[in-house]
Design a protein that fits this description.
heterodimer, A: mainly alpha, 3 helices, rod-shaped, B: alpha/beta, OB fold (Dihydrolipoamide Acetyltransferase, E2P), Rossmann fold, 5-stranded mixed beta barrel, 9 helices, elongated
């Protein structure tokens, strides 16, 4: 389990936690950890939906470098 | 008319040209249908005329090349017809079947004048080309390749092949940029012509560029719009469609409606058809993540609360149960303890009493038995003492008797021995005196004989008979060897001594 998974892994893990909790497979002992984890995963997914790190200038520079 | 110069008929250039012109006009009076490939349209926008290069190829080589004329009005009519039938304008590199007339112009030379072009011939040819492209891609096994790419969960980074001014691009941006869910996309335009002859080349070049920075992108979107249905035959081009099919990330097309789906659209990952639909397709992918995430949040909150509530209830019930059960156990155990305490006290009292009785019983018993043993022992001792006394007296008597007997015997024996001894002594006295007188007589005879011998042997008696003894140095001289001449010697005789010196020595 990665500490900061990419959103695909985050999404999958989140689905897993939801499925576990829906099936009642989570005990009270685990609950706190799982909810904490889920909150992080939800944050990662939501952040990904509304942000991006790509930069046109960087890509253009790479393209120019590739053409030389 | 020809002039005669130096006996030769000489024609003017114009005369020759006009002659050719009239000959051709006479020979090729009517128009006829010709099929050829239009290598170049050579359209001059200023005049509106076209001067197409027509070729015929055999095994890839040009075997015939002719120039043609397509006048402004004819071109307009034909082009309209093409656009209607083919959805394509007249352009370079298509096969055409055209109505022509041979035309010779003194200035411009020989040319085929194109009067009409049958669009259905070209259409068939284009369709044939399209089918060939599809077949080749299938044969090479690449037709469905792009569809097997994995579209990321969030197709967020888009390389757009389009034109800055395209209406389609504007539509796409409208949807993407203004989405009310604030989904964030990153897109970058790789500009290229999207229709007509230069489109294939341009799009291939941009796909090549995108390949160089492919790590930054999740998909390629080819976006075109607002251009109507014309000029789409480039999307059937073999090289372009092959590149799309083989592209390492999904290629999505939104190139607008056409009556027939182009090969590019067929091989693309997906074909939402219009730029708007393409944008909505991407938004939908975001929804596919966003909705479950939101739902997950709700579910987790809801289920967690319920779980905690349930656990709390269970816990409280357990506490209640525990309290009641433990109280019962306490009471029960207290009763048991009290009961047992009573029993222990009673039992120990009983035991004490019992032991005490037994103890006193044993004490008496020990006293009685001790006395008895003591009495018996003293009796035994007395008895033995008595027996010992009797024995001693008996033994003493016996001894006395024995001693007396011994004394009597001793007396008797000594008396007898004494008488025997005195007889022997008397006998011995007699014998002793007899023997002694005998012995005395024999000894005195012997002594007389001996006395006579001894006086014979005395030196004085010898000397008296005339013998002497000579001494030298105190020793008797027996040989001449004992003496030296001049030595003093002493000679002993019966009545004294004579001293003399040795005059000479003579051995006998």
């Amino acid at each position: 389990m990665e500490v900061n998974p990419n959103y695909t892994l985050a999404f999958e893990e989140l689905q897993e936690i939801v499925s576990e909790i829906e099936k009642g497979e989570i005990t009270v002992d685990e609950l706190s950890e799982k909810v904490k984890r889920a909150a992080l995963l939800i944050k990662i997914c939501k952040e990904k939906l509304t942000t991006t790190e790509e930069d046109v200038n960087k890509i253009l520079k790479e393209l120019e470098a590739g053409e030389e | 008319m020809p002039e005669t110069i130096d006996n030769k008929n000489v024609f003017s250039l114009q005369e020759v040209a006009l002659s050719i012109q009239s000959t051709l006009a006479a020979r090729y009076g009517s128009s006829f249908w010709v099929k050829a490939e239009m290598n170049k349209l050579n359209y001059y926008p200023k005049s509106g005329h076209c001067y197409p290069d027509l070729v015929e190829k055999s095994e890839g080589k040009v075997v015939t090349l002719m120039r043609a004329n397509l006048w402004k009005d004819d071109f307009a009519a034909i082009n309209n017809n093409f656009l209607q039938v083919l959805k394509e304008p007249l352009k370079d590199g298509i096969k055409i079947m055209f109505l022509a007339r041979i035309n010779f112009d003194p200035v411009h030379g020989l040319a085929l004048r194109i009067l009409d072009i049958d669009p259905s011939y070209t259409l068939g040819d284009l369709e044939k080309e399209k089918q060939e492209t599809i077949k080749r891609l299938h044969d090479e096994g690449v037709f469905g390749k792009n569809k097997t790419c994995i579209m990321p969960l969030l197709p967020q980074r888009i390389a757009i092949i389009s034109v800055e001014t395209s209406k389609g691009l504007a539509d796409f941006r409208e949807v993407i940029d203004k989405n009310p869910w604030r989904y964030c996309f990153f897109y970058m335009l790789f500009p290229s012509l999207l229709q007509g002859e230069k489109a294939v080349e341009g799009m291939l070049a941009q796909l090549n560029n995108i390949r160089k920075v492919i790590s930054h992108f999740d998909l390629v979107a080819i976006i075109r719009g607002g251009g109507g249905d014309v000029g789409l035959s480039c999307y059937n081009d073999y090289a372009l469609t092959r590149e799309i099919a083989l592209f390492p990330i999904p290629v999505v097309t939104g190139i607008g409606h056409s009556t027939n789906e182009t090969v590019a659209e067929m091989v693309a990952f997906t074909n939402p058809i219009t730029p708007t639909k393409l944008a909505e397709f991407l938004i939908q992918r975001f929804h596919n993540v966003s909705v479950p995430v939101n739902k997950a949040q709700e579910t987790i909150v809801d289920k967690s609360r319920r779980l905690i509530r349930e656990e709390k209830n269970t816990f409280q019930a357990q506490v209640k149960l525990f309290r009641s059960v433990s109280r019962n156990i306490l009471v029960e155990n207290k009763g048991n303890i009290e009961e047992l305490t009573g029993k222990i006290v009673q039992q120990s009292k009983f035991l004490m009493r019992n032991q005490k009785e037994q103890l006193s019983l044993l004490t008496t018993d020990i006293k009685n038995k001790g006395m008895f043993v003591l009495h018996e022992a003293s009796q035994r001792v007395n008895r033995q003492a008595l027996m010992m006394k009797k024995d001693a007296v008996a033994m003493l008597g016996k001894f006395k008797l024995q001693v007396a007997q011994h004394v009597l015997q001793l007396k008797r024996v000594s008396k007898f021995r004494f008488s025997l001894g005195s007889e022997k002594i008397i006998y011995a006295q007699v014998r002793l005196s007899e023997r002694s007188q005998l012995l005395l007589k024999s000894r005195s005879l012997e002594l007389y004989n001996l006395e006579k011998n001894v006086s014979n042997l005395d030196p004085k008696n010898v000397l008296k008979r005339g013998f002497s003894v000579t001494l030298a140095n105190g020793k008797s001289v027996r040989t001449t060897a004992q003496l030296k001449e001049g030595q003093q010697i002493k000679t002993i005789v019966y009545d004294g001594e004579i001293l003399s010196d040795v005059k000479s020595i003579k051995k006998t």
